[in-house]
Structures are given as C-alpha cells and as structure tokens.
Amino acid sequence: MAATNLGGAGADAPERVQAAAAGHPLRGVKPPAATSAPLAPGAVVPGATEPAQSGPEHVEAPVAYDAILLAGFGGPEGQDDVIPFLRNVTRGRGIPDERLEEVAHHYRHFGGVSPINEHNRELKAALEAELAGRGIDLPVIWGNRNWDPYMNDALREANERGFTKLIAVATSAYSSYSSCRQYREDFADALEDTGLGGVVQIDKVRQFFDHPGFVAPFVEGVREAIAKLEADHESFDPTTDVEVLFATHSIPTTDAAKSGPADRGFGEGGAYAAQHLAVAEVVMREAGAGDVPWKLVYQSRSGPPTQPWLEPDVNDAIAELPAAGRKAVVIVPLGFVSDHMEVMWDLDEEAMETAEEHGLAAVRVPTPGVHPAYVAGLVDLVLERVHGTPAAERPHATDLGPWYDVCRPGCCENVRLGFKPALSGIAP
Ligand SMILES: CC1=C(CCC(=O)O)c2cc3nc(cc4[nH]c(cc5[nH]c(cc1n2)c(C)c5CCC(=O)O)c(CCC(=O)O)c4C)C(CCC(=O)O)=C3C
Ligand SMILES: [Fe+2]
Asked: Which is the closest atom of ligand 1 to the Cα of 76?
C-alpha cells in the first residue's frame, strides 16, 4: 500500500484541535453564520481550547449537551452506490483497485446493499425510544463517515436546529485508528468543511468495549450457542469438543502497536488486541464457559500481502481445529456492533464455509444490534458525560476501563498517514 498522505498533516506536524466546553453560543441562540476559511494542517479550530480535566482518571467536566451525534460507517444501498462508496472508504489510502473489485463483489452478492444504514436507522429509533422512556430530551442526529447521510449534513442539521454542543456516539467500541481516531478526524474534517469550527462542539463518549451494555449481548450469545451445540450433539463435551473463536477486524500491526495511549504499554497488539482479549475473557467467564477453549482471531484483512496485519485469520484458525480434536466452533463477532457486511460475508459466508469444509458444526453469535442492554448502555455513556460521573462510578467489565473521555496524546496513530486534526483528543 502506498503511504499516500492526501491533504493530511505530516507525522512531524503535530496539531491541536479540540472543541472546548466553553465559549460556545447557548442553546436556542442562532449561531453566527459560518465564515471560517478551510483549516490548514496543524491549525487549531477557532475557539478551541484544551479539554477540561476533572480528575486523574481523565473524566471530563459535565456538559449540558444539546444533542447526540450518532456517527456511523455508512454503506451502499444499491448496485450504483457500491464503487462510489468504496472510493469514499479508501480515499487517500492507496487501496489497490483489485482489492476494491474484490470487496465490491461481496456487496454485489447482496444486491449492492449493505444493511449497515438500516441498522443505524434502527439504532437511532431505539436510542430515541430509550431516551423518551427515561424522560430525557436529547435529540439524535445521525451522520456517516462514508455514505449518505454524511457527517457534513448532520452538522448542518445540528446548526440549523440551534444545537451547538454535541456528544458523539460512534458505532465502534475499541481503540485503534480505524475504530476511534478516524472518526475523530472525520469530525474535525466535517467542522472544517461546513465552516462550523468554533460554533459546534463535538465531544465523544469513551470507547465502550468493556461497557456492560456492549458485553451483555455477547455473553448471552455465547451461552446460547454452547447450549445449542450441546442440545444438537448430546455426546459433546464443550471443554474438549468446542472452541470459541472471537473474531474482530484485522488491522495493520503498525496501527495495532499504536492503538491506545502512547504512554501505556499493551504489548505487540497494542490496546486494540489487549481490549479484545480482556473482553473475551469476561464473556467466557460470564457465559459460564470458563473451561471452554477460546482464541482471538482476525478477519477482513486488506492491504498488500507484504504489509503485516494482525493474525491468525479466522479461516486459518478454523482449519486447525479438527487436528486439536474439536468438533464444533462458535464464532463471536466481538469487534462489531451490528451484522453488517464484514459479518455477513467474512463470517457467515466464508468462515461458515471453512467450518463446513473441515467437518465442524458451527454457530455464529449475534452482534449487539439493538439489544436492549446495548441501547441502554449507549444512553448511560451519554449521561455519564452530561453528569460528569466520577470514574469510580463508571461501569466497566474489564480492568482496562473505564476508558478515557478524551483520547491521550499520540493515541491511535496511523503511522502511514501521520497525525491529522482530530477532535476529542489531546494532540497529537
Ligand atoms: C477496525 C475496523 C473496523 C471496526 C470498527 C468499526 O466498525 O468502525 C472496521 C469496520 C468496517 N469496515 C467496513 C468496510 C470497509 N473497511 C475497509 C477497509 C479497512 N477497514 C479497516 C479496519 C476496520 N474496519 C482497515 C484497517 C481497513 C484498510 C483500509 C484503511 O486503512 O482504511 C474497506 C475498504 C476495502 C478493504 O480494504 O477491504 C471497506 C469497504 C465496514 C462497513 C461494512 C458494511 O458496509 O456493511 C465497517 C463497519
Ligand atoms: Fe473496515
């Protein structure tokens, strides 16, 4: 993959862009017309200051937010959308055309439609229902990184409705460039594109990999999957016959090593792998499956073969199971929040086929989707920011959390692209 850097700041050009808790127009007051010129790399969003720090655990001071910004990935909704969508996703990243064609084929197989936008419509409706049920007056505005409705449109909508303080919930639970920093960069880009820097503040809830609301659906899924295998195959002993594979998106090993705060050592896979391992262990324990063998595996790698990505691949891991005496596999899409294309194709088509080829019974566990615990958990994540809940009172299922409200310096660097302006973090 070419180390292209289209319009981004170089790795040696640290920037500081952070929407502030102070200095924004009050709710209901029409914000000034957008006037700011495009930001130069390294520029500071007008009106930005360092984030407030209310404690050693990096918990932010309370903010009376106007609205929730639901930040999605976006996906195509017809055959004509597929290539433009893929170009959006890979813009500036040097993904070769053959790879785009390969991925286009996955979408074409399903009529050019990814279910991800429909999932986010459902999630938005579920969040609205949960908020209404709790008597909380916080509108939800939805914007995607790569497809309509785009982030820019969401920010324009926020501005038109007089909202100046947004708390973002991205549909991505772990720390890494692709799952955290890239959303934060896209918020900064969208403020620049719309000229709303200094007018609209965007903060982001902490990475929620170990929030009980995100973990609970996987616990339920693993428990049910093992029960199903036991019911279908009476002779099965799950402690020897079944292996649970926790699957997440592979990322370049250089990105993985830089995931999480630069000053916290997480080993080779960085915070990204450490978070998945910690959550998987909790899921197994809470599912009452502490004695069942399990592994963390990766899927959906791209990039040139010469570039190392996290391994093992889910298909390679499945292929090795019969030699270890396993008769069945449970696949847990631990890295994903909904059953989108990466799940539908890479797991439900490819991994399931691999399992069948190797004579293994296989069950794929559902993603959180709109599970009530997950939806309630997302609302709780917003409320802990509204209230400035102390870290000690914040729910977290692993020893790694609760994660930071504002990303630490150097967090989730993409070494190929360098640091670009990003919100909700301390630069670079
Ligand atoms: C960590 C991670 C998540 C999980 C966090 C999160 O959920 O955000 C995620 C999610 C997703 N990834 C998705 C789709 C794609 N990802 C791509 C490319 C890449 N993903 C990467 C990482 C991740 N990706 C990386 C390191 C690349 C290489 C290129 C680069 O450096 O940017 C490509 C380009 C072609 C290719 O290279 O495969 C596509 C089409 C969809 C939408 C599915 C749908 O449409 O239903 C979703 C939810
Ligand atoms: Fe991806």
From this structure: 45
168 Cβ closer than 6 Å to some ligand 1 atom? no
The span from the CA of 427 to the CA of 202, in Å, is 15
From first CA to last CA, the distance across the chain in angstroms is 24
Q: In sequence order, what are the residues at sequence separation of 6 or more whose Cβ sits closer than 8 angstroms to the Cβ of residue 82?
A: 76, 104, 107, 108, 112
Q: Which atom of ligand 1 is nearest to the CA of 146?
A: 42
Q: Coil, strand, or helix at residue 196?
A: coil
Annotated binding site for Fe-coproporphyrin III: 114, 183
- Provide the token pair at 100: 């785009």
What's the 3-state SS for 58-118?
CCCCCCCCCEEEEEECCCCECHHHHHHHHHHHHCCCCCCHHHHHHHHHHHHHCCCECCHHH
| pLDDT (0 to 100) of residue 57 | 55
Cβ–ligand 1 contact at 275 (below 6 Å): no
Which of these, 262, 239, 274, lies nearest to 425 by C-alpha position?
262
What pLDDT was estimated at residue 263?
Answer: 79
Please choose, from the candidates 386, 380, 426, the residue with its C-alpha nearest in 3D space to the C-alpha of residue 127.
380
For 208, residues 6+ apart whose C-beta sits below 8 A from its C-beta are 173, 214, 377, 378, 381, 403
HEC profile of 396-424:
CCCCCCCCCCCECCCCCCCCCCCCCCCCC
Residues 6+ apart with CB under 8 A from 322: 358, 359, 360
Q: Whose CA is nearest to atom 48 of ligand 1?
A: 73
- Ordered mean pLDDT values, 10 residues apiece, the chain (428 residues): 29 29 29 34 36 56 97 97 94 80 93 98 98 98 98 98 98 97 97 97 98 98 98 95 98 95 86 98 98 98 91 98 98 98 97 98 98 98 97 95 92 90 91
Q: Is 176 in the pocket of ligand 1 (CB under 6 A)?
A: yes
What pLDDT sits at residue 230?
A: 96
Evaluate: CB of 340 within 6 angstroms of ligand 1. yes
Residue having the nearest C-alpha atom to atom 44 of ligand 1:
341
Q: Is the CB of 175 under 6 A from ligand 1?
A: no
Provide the ipTM.
0.95
The answer, yes or no, to whether any atom of ligand 1 lies below 6 A from the CB of 346, is no
> Using CA atoms, how far apart are residues 367 and 370, in angstroms rounded to an integer?
9
Q: How many CB atoms lie within 10 A of CB 99?
A: 15
Domains of the chain and CATH, by start: 212-364 (3.40.50.1400)
Pocket probe for ligand 1: among 186, 302, 337, the residue whose CB has the most ligand atoms within 8 Å is 302
